[in-house]
Amino acid sequence: MTTVNGQNVDELFQTDSFKKSLKSAEHVIQYVNKQYISINDSDYTVYANHLKAVLSTLVPLMKKADTLFNNLYQKEHFAGSYADKLKIGKPTEYDMNLIIKLPVSPDNLEFEDAAPSFIKIKVNRVAFEKASTDLNFYGRGWVDDEGYLLQTKFRDWMESVLTKALNPLELDESPEGNYGNTRCLKVRKDNAGEQVYKIGHKKSGPAMTLKVVTPDNCALDVDLVPAFQFGHPKWPTSVIPLPETSANKSWVVIPKPKKLKDGVKLEVNDTREWRMSFLDQEREIIKESGTVKPTIKLLKKLRDTNSLKQLSSYAIKTVVMLEMEKNQPDFWKNRSTFIFLFMLNRLIGHIKSGHIPFFWDKRDDLLKMGKTQAENVGGCLTRLLKDMVKNVESNPCIIAEKLCKYAQK
């Protein structure tokens, strides 16, 4: 329980006097949002055009390098803060799912419960072997002896596809070459002729991270994650029911290794388990919801300003979505300053409890910190909250000071 001047913060937030004390600070926080957090349209356009140029050239190279990828590749699917319109700062980091079509129809698949937020996919071996023969990939080891899809084999295959596509390209031998394997990707643009993008890559969890330097020296990090996509009526039984507002939206599984807390060991069959992702449904939940998106951005800004990197953006977004379950839509029409402080208090509560539940499966824990780390992060945020709540009426700029003390526009 957090207290200010002996009063419970939760109780303080319910008083009209406290809400009125935030009136002057509201103008300040709106200014901070506009000047330090929101991304202007021109930046969005410039970086998005660079990303499009790279992918529109790289994906055909991957298709050419691997016949199976050419047969099974479907489309790109944006993930992460950029797609959610929750990005703060320059839009230089992107998460992109590469949707791969399974070689068998959904009728030949069975979903089985696994660890929280994970699922097992079992295929009809007869149908899979026929598809394997038709597409010439039976020997790749995607499926084990019991018919389960293996995320490790799938991830290794995708990594090999990218490597085969990039290796024939000219090596960038300049001193600033990234990862020691930077290649020169030549992109043809109608209005600018041929331009060279320098691309390094490395493996990072389920993703293959591209480190891109554009012709005008913009730096981009692009995480490419292979994924399978499913839709209605397929829906996992281990998560909450499919929301009616997103019944026509798809969900994906990705070959993501488990991120465990200290002292927890992987089980033998973890290679069968695929991480479920419900990004499209989450976008439906948070869209057009008053102060929700600005609040998530402010919390992320506070985290970054205070170097609390252990706290993931997804965990922050999840805490806000969990609170949306409890409050009516009108609640999110309160002043931005009030909602920000209210949600910061809720975030602190989750951290101090040692658990941030996955929105779709509350058994899972998104707070991947040890006890000492969580105490440090929670303590830092508590001190910030108490200082802001205590002084916001006399100093309306205090929230801006906490959000931007190290910021440079």
From TrEMBL:
<keyword id="KW-0464">Manganese</keyword>
<dbReference type="Pfam" id="PF20266">
    <property type="entry name" value="Mab-21_C"/>
</dbReference>
<dbReference type="GO" id="GO:0016779">
    <property type="term" value="F:nucleotidyltransferase activity"/>
</dbReference>
<feature type="domain" description="Mab-21-like HhH/H2TH-like">
    <location>
        <begin position="292"/>
        <end position="371"/>
    </location>
</feature>
<comment type="similarity">
    <text>Belongs to the mab-21 family.</text>
</comment>
<keyword id="KW-0547">Nucleotide-binding</keyword>
<dbReference type="GO" id="GO:0046872">
    <property type="term" value="F:metal ion binding"/>
</dbReference>
<keyword id="KW-0479">Metal-binding</keyword>
<dbReference type="InterPro" id="IPR046903">
    <property type="entry name" value="Mab-21-like_nuc_Trfase"/>
</dbReference>
<keyword id="KW-0548">Nucleotidyltransferase</keyword>
<feature type="domain" description="Mab-21-like nucleotidyltransferase">
    <location>
        <begin position="82"/>
        <end position="287"/>
    </location>
</feature>
<protein>
    <recommendedName>
        <fullName>Cyclic GMP-AMP synthase-like</fullName>
    </recommendedName>
</protein>
<dbReference type="GO" id="GO:0005524">
    <property type="term" value="F:ATP binding"/>
</dbReference>
<dbReference type="InterPro" id="IPR046906">
    <property type="entry name" value="Mab-21_HhH/H2TH-like"/>
</dbReference>
<keyword id="KW-0808">Transferase</keyword>
<keyword id="KW-0460">Magnesium</keyword>
<dbReference type="GO" id="GO:0005525">
    <property type="term" value="F:GTP binding"/>
</dbReference>
<dbReference type="InterPro" id="IPR024810">
    <property type="entry name" value="MAB21L/cGLR"/>
</dbReference>
<dbReference type="Pfam" id="PF03281">
    <property type="entry name" value="Mab-21"/>
</dbReference>
<keyword id="KW-0342">GTP-binding</keyword>
<keyword id="KW-0067">ATP-binding</keyword>
